[in-house]
Write a structure and sequence with these properties.
58 residues, mainly alpha, 0% strand, Crust_neurohorm_sf, neuropeptide hormone activity
Length: 58
Amino acid sequence: MDRICELCHDMYSHQRPNMRADCRSGCFRNEDFKRCLRLFRPMTSLIHNKSRKSRSIK
């Protein structure tokens, strides 16, 4: 969880210098952390499509 906040801070520190602390506040139970999670979550539709394509090639 901490890594998510670090990545988010790296991307947004020019706009929000306290992003890392804001993301971690409340033991990661806040909207900033949720936004960061959405930003860095795996795109399951892309993973699913790649998996499907690799099966069709074999």
